[in-house]
Design goal:
Largest sheet: 4 strands, antiparallel
Radius of gyration: 16 Å
CATH superfamily of the largest domain: bacterial protein sp0830 like
CATH topology of the largest domain: Alpha-Beta Plaits
Helix content: 25-40%
CATH class of the largest domain: Alpha Beta
Number of strands: 8
Number of domains: 2
InterPro entries: DUF1697
Strand content: 25-35%
Number of helices: 4
Shape: globular
């Protein structure tokens, strides 16, 4: 089965530095197959047919601790999980000079539509949608600083998600589909 591991908080602002080539070797050493990394922020596509997502996540968190000395949260999503998110992601959403659009991948303990009630959403400027596994958010760049979503950083909820922009999310999906064929 094809999965992606989304690592939270690596190679950001010079902190939690992880070499992607070494990380790929770590994944392979613990039995992940067809391992592909995408950009430096912790997106690793791989296959594993014998373990559950929870087992894989635990194993990968352990190997990262062993090999890098870092306590990093690892969110694992299957190709089916990712496909459901992609089906809900509006094609018109971009991450460019005019629009900021993100996918906030949720840890299981906050993965419920009630998560929207914990966000500061300004409906006149924020477009926010829950889908199983994620919150989708888009805003005109000119309004980013006015968004209530900026208040999310540093909260307990923020620690239970990992964010990718829509361009990165689409590329991860493309790589997962390539691994599938």
């Amino acid at each position: 089965m094809i999965h992606v591991a989304l690592l939270r908080g690596i190679n950001v602002g010079g902190k939690n530095k992880v070499n992607m080539k070494v990380l790929k070797q770590s994944f392979e050493r613990v039995g992940m197959k067809a391992v592909v990394t995408y950009i430096n922020t912790g997106n690793i596509i791989f296959t594993n047919d014998s373990l559950s997502k929870a087992e894989i996540s635990h194993m990968l968190e352990e190997v990262i601790q062993e090999d890098f000395g870092l306590s990093i949260k690892v969110l694992v999503r299957s190709l089916d999980d990712f496909s459901m998110i992609m089906d809900s992601l509006p094609e018109s959403w971009k991450n460019d000079q005019h629009m900021k659009s993100d996918v906030m991948f949720l840890w299981d303990d906050v993965d419920d539509e009630s998560v929207l009630g914990k966000l500061v959403i300004k409906p006149e400027i924020d477009t926010v949608q829950y889908v199983p596994g994620a919150v989708l958010w888009s805003i005109d760049r000119k309004n980013v600083t006015k968004s209530g979503m900026t208040k999310l950083v540093g909260t307990n909820l923020y620690k239970k998600m990992t964010v990718r922009n829509v361009n990165t999310t689409r590329k991860i999906y493309e790589l997962m589909l390539t691994t599938h064929s």
